[in-house]
Structure formats: C-alpha cells, structure tokens
Design a protein that fits this description.
Layout lengths: L2 H5 L2 E4 L2 E4 L7 E3 L5 E8 L6 E8 L4 H20 L8 H15 L5 H18 L9 H17 L1 E2 L11 E2 L3 H21 L29 H14 L1 H13 L3 H4 L11 E2 L4 E4 L19 E4 L2 H12 L3 H5 L18 H10 L9 H13 L4 H8 L4 H6 L5 H14 L16
Antiparallel strand pairs: 1-2, 3-4, 4-5, 6-7, 8-9, 9-10
Helix pairs in contact: 3-4, 4-6, 7-8, 7-12, 8-10, 8-13
Length: about 425
C-alpha cells in the first residue's frame, strides 16, 4: 500500500465511505472509487434549503468540480422554483404508468399487468437512481445482467419462491419487452426534465429466434382445416362454433370471447346476418370497449356460418343458455384466455399431426384460406382487421403449391418449363 493511501482517513458519511475532508469544495473521494459531489443552497428570502449530491464513479477530479458547479446552479433553480426537483427513477416510472392509465394510453387489463410486472423487475435494478443521474453506463450494465439471466436463469420474484433462490428462464422477447418500457420511461423523463440526452438510446434489443418455421408454421394448410374442424366438433363440440368462426373470419380469440348474442348492445345481428367486432377481452373479467387495433368492424356472415352459430346457441342450456354471450363459459360468464389451448393440442394429437398449434393458428390459417379463395387483399384485411399489408403478410404462410405455380409461371417466361410459355404456347428454337 502506498504511504499516501495509508495516511488517508476514511469516514462513513451519507452512507458512503469517503475522505474525512473534501479534496475540493464540495468534492470527496470515495474509498471504492470515484467522487461524491455535494452542494447546499439557501434561499435568503425564505430560508428554504436545497441540497443535491451525485456520485461519479468514472470521472476525474476536474470533472467532479465541474459537476459541483452544475449542481449548485440546479439547486438555485430549484430553490427559486425555476426547476422541479428530479425524483427517483422508481417514483417517476410509477407516476408515468399511472398517467398512461388515466389518459387511456394503456387501456387493457393485459397492458396494465404487463407494465406492473415489468416495473416489479425494473425498480430493484434502476429505481434507486435519480432521473438526472441515470447514465448510459448504468443501462448497459443492466442489459449485460439480462444477457447473463437469459443464459443462466434469473431469480424468481414470486412470493412463494422467496428465500428459495429459485431461478426461472428469461426469454429474449421478454427482455426486449422490458427494454421497450425502459425506453418509454427514459424518453419521457428526458423530455420532462430537459436532460438533453436520453440514456436509453444505447440499449440494443436482443436477437429473438424466429417464431415460425417450415416445420412449425402455427398454421394449417387449407387441406387440413376441414379435418381439424371435424375432429374439434367430434372431441369438443362446445368449442366447435367458436373455432369455426375464428377460421372463417380470422379474428383474435380476445375479440371472439366478449361477443354478445343478445342484450341491449348485441354484436351478432341475427336478422341482418351481421357480426360486429368492437370489444376485446385480455384477462380477468374486464372487457375493453374497443378491439386491439381500435377498429370497429362490421362483417356480413353467409348462411353457412349463421347456421353453425344458430346450432351452437340452440345447444346451450342452464347458465350458458341464460347468458348474453355468444360463447359463454359453463357458468355463463366470459371464457378464460386459455379455453382453446388444450382442445387445440388434443385435436392435433388425435389427428396424429406433428404440429404445435395454438389458437393464433385460426388467424394465420384464415390468410392462407382467403388467398386460396382468390379474395382480394383489401377485402381480406377488412375481414381480419389487419390495418397494414405488412401485418397481413406477417400472418400469412405461402403454401408449396402456390410457390410451385408461381415459380413455374416465371420459369415459363424463360422457356424453362418443358419449352412452354406461361400462356401454354411453345417456344421456338
């Protein structure tokens, strides 16, 4: 140990180990590296005191002195009322969440649950920083920790797992979701407190493995859809109509669950043969008075679809028969989010298909069925509720027969298919 270090007297002050005396006015060296900068301003008119301090880990003594000057200016602004006191990141994040709910920017129960569970993960890691002291380096270190968690597992925060040191998996998509909320919070606080630079700009999203593959497209080929529905009707007749309608119009299960067949504002107009999609159910008992895309849809239904729905309603009895919902639960309320998960798995298993199929396959398969039926893209989007061509393509799966036909037509222009042109004529040699 150097003699200068041996002679340094360390004391604990403001929860930090630091030099007993400041190196410069308002600047102390920290034992574990860096500096603590502190300033105190008194308003001579009111006697109001404003104290500010910052810890600088990677800074020179000159930079620490400059920071003290900046803090002193900030403190004067705070005392005079020209500037607001920057809160801790945890307080700002919670207040922003509440404001977004109050303003209706976060509408669904699922959206509130996502923000709430994400903040439960973020606040222990970032919440102790004040909004104006959160730096890109802090967020980079946090992202590095996420990378470790994705590889080794992360600590569970469930109450039932407290004290057990249980590790749970962290998917890249989940980590990216956390980062997206951090970016929203940091962007808002940067504007709110005129911080200049958004510290979250340095965050890069993790690579997410492709969700759908050739072997597992989470969609049925048009030739499979009929067999799937027939087996669903055989094994789970109570879910057949809902599944049939899902394949027929490509709607999200969250839009199908709150459909009402009668009452003051029914969504199925029996005499006109029209289905109104204008509500959404994400979780619990709460129904959002709009769809996920905030787009109300009016879909005319052909007689074949109406007949399936009439047979379904005629089969309802007891609490289900008394319910206003088109697809009620056994007690007459809303069906659970997972109501179709097991039926889909069991039907695929009974058909002995090597597929992992979820209810989202209804929406994806509809796109392929509509294309096979030569329905114009504009009409397809009007039915499924996709607002852009990009999302329509995202939910589509080009079938081999379509690709073969397309490649054959292109190759025909080159004289590469048995010497024939696309029109069926023969090329000359």
């Amino acid at each position: 140990m150097r003699s200068s270090e041996a002679k340094t007297k360390w004391v604990t002050r403001w929860k930090y180990e630091m030099t007993a005396k400041p190196l410069r006015r308002g600047v102390w060296a920290l034992k574990d590296g860096g500096y603590l900068v502190r300033t105190r301003v008194v308003d001579p008119r009111t006697g109001k005191v404003q104290e500010l301090q910052r810890v600088l880990r990677d800074a020179t003594l000159i930079q620490a002195e400059n920071e003290r000057v900046r803090l002193q200016s900030d403190a004067r602004d705070l005392v005079s009322g020209r500037k607001q006191t920057p809160p801790q990141w945890s307080s700002y994040a919670a207040s922003l969440f509440k404001a977004k709910v109050n303003e209706g920017k976060i509408k669904s129960a699922k959206g509130r649950e996502r923000w709430s569970s994400t903040l439960a993960r973020l606040i222990p890691e970032l919440g102790h920083f004040f909004v104006d002291e959160l730096r890109p380096a802090h967020l980079i270190a946090w992202r590095d920790k996420l990378a470790v968690w994705m590889h080794e597992g992360m600590p569970s925060i469930r109450k039932s797992d407290q004290g057990k040191k249980k590790l749970v998996s962290l998917a890249p998509a989940t980590a990216n979701g956390w980062m997206s909320i951090v970016k929203v919070i940091c962007g808002a606080m940067t504007n709110h407190y005129e911080l200049g630079n958004d510290p979250s700009d340095v965050l890069e999203y993790f690579h997410v493995p492709r969700t759908y593959t050739r072997e597992q497209p989470n969609a049925l080929a048009p030739e499979q859809a009929g067999a799937f529905l027939a087996k669903m009707k055989e094994l789970y007749p109570q879910h057949y109509a809902m599944t049939f309608l899902g394949f027929a119009i490509g709607s999200r299960p969250s839009t199908l669950r709150p459909l009402r067949r009668r009452g003051q504002t029914p969504d199925l107009l029996w005499e006109e043969g029209i289905l109104l999609l204008r509500r959404s159910h994400s979780m619990g008992k709460e129904i959002m008075d709009q769809t996920k895309t905030a787009l109300d849809q009016e879909i005319p239904l052909p007689p074949a679809v109406m007949e399936v729905l009439r047979e379904h309603v005629a089969s309802l009895d007891g609490a289900m028969g008394d319910s206003d919902y088109l697809f009620p639960s056994v007690i007459g309320g809303l069906r659970a989010r997972s109501v179709l998960d097991q039926p889909f798995r069991q039907v695929v298993q009974a058909l002995k298909w090597d597929l992992k199929l979820t209810p989202k396959a209804m929406r994806r398969t509809f796109q392929d069925l509509a294309r096979r039926a030569n329905i114009h893209d504009l009409v397809t989007r009007a039915i499924s509720g996709h607002t852009t061509e990009r999302m329509q393509r995202h939910y589509s799966t080009a079938q081999n027969a379509e690709i073969l036909h397309a490649v054959g037509r292109v190759a025909g222009f080159l004289g590469g298919v048995a010497g024939e042109t696309p029109e069926g004529g023969h090329t000359t040699h």
